[in-house]
Amino acid sequence: MMRRVFEKSLACFLFCGLFGMRLGNFNGVEIVVIEPSRLGILAEPGVPTPLDSVVFTGSGYADVVAQDPFVFVAAGATMKWAHYDGESFDNSGSYDPPTGGNAKDIFIAGNTIYMSDRDLGILKYTYSPSGSVPGLSFVGAYDGFVAFKPKGIFVHEDRIFVACDDSSKLCVVDTAFTSHNCVDLPNRGQAVFVKDTLAYVVYGTSGTNGGIVAFTISDLTMLDTTRVTDAGPTNLWVEGSTAYVTINSAARFLKVFDVSNPMDIRYVGRTDVNVGGGGRDVEVISNADTLWGYVACGDGGLAVVNLSVSPPFPVRSNIAFTGAVGLGIEQGARRVFVISEDTLRMFHDSLSLSVNEESKLVAQGFDLILYPNPFNVSSRVSFELPFATKVDLSIFDILGRKIKTFASGILPRGSYSFTLAANELSSGIYFMRLQTEIGSISKRVLLMK
Length: 449
Hints:
The chain is mostly beta strands. It is built from 2 helices and 37 strands. Strand 25 and strand 26 (302-306) form a beta hairpin.
């Protein structure tokens, strides 16, 4: 008994001393190494702090995606990019091929970037960053359904889901660009979001009625289509069982729908504050028990909406500027990026977080599971990423020495699984650590041969 107590105490002492302060246990997960500089601890929750901006040449800016430390912008006939270091941009540029395009949306998955283009189809790029340069390379284009004018894009596993705003189609093509399938929408497709086994699409045109519809991603079976908005929807974000839809209306720029039953999507409520421009893009961030919606609002700039109260949902803050059309959030780096006309703006995500709240948030979002544990033959190591981030999944012995690395580098959000084999280790206590950009999660592993 004394030996087991000593081993446990020694393990905690050595591991916590080497990798950070032990913050406690949440649902069986040890939370350690939460970097205070990454928590964004400020007094005013939901109030973005302007940091820096970069001005590009040209026109046609449509959307932005961020993956620390780069930001990529769909910009008409080209792709713009910027590199940020801390609180400022220190490099920027553009990548031109192919030419003559009309980019509308952009999505990043790992080290691959996809853009939807009304004139060229779906464009695929890879990037291999070196310092402050992204190292972009054009892979190819898929024009199988270019006649439908691709617009909103979402990549899920090995498939690309595209909402097309001509001929009212939802199209799906594999990431290898070999074949596609298209089904009808009730009206012109604007944006698509894939969550678990369902794809949600908003449809309609500016100033006309539109709605939200759910499809199964397995066979593209259409489910409920009856939820109608009073103005053209432009984009959406799905968080849990709720869909947040931006609307082309200055006072009603964000509407919320309950999608817990995809056969019966129900309207929940909306904003009721005129910020001076209709909603164009939205992303949602969780802060303990509060959800904040960050919205690019056309000529209204950047608005932050409290989504955890009863509707109409109040606007917590609004930073006004013209032409805000696209928004991207790098949650690991706590940065919010908005593209407006020719200017890319960077803000600090000033959510007020306590260490305890952040511990729970990390535990819920970055789920690390080992089963069985203890084990004597093999154990399955699984984890969830709620957003793309730099990852290191490694196992350490009781003295803090790294034994093996299972995953390292930037990974897109999703589920991952690895096998821990007993024949690679001796009997004893080990620690499996999932290191991310906002902290790390560790779990004690016991091998008994």
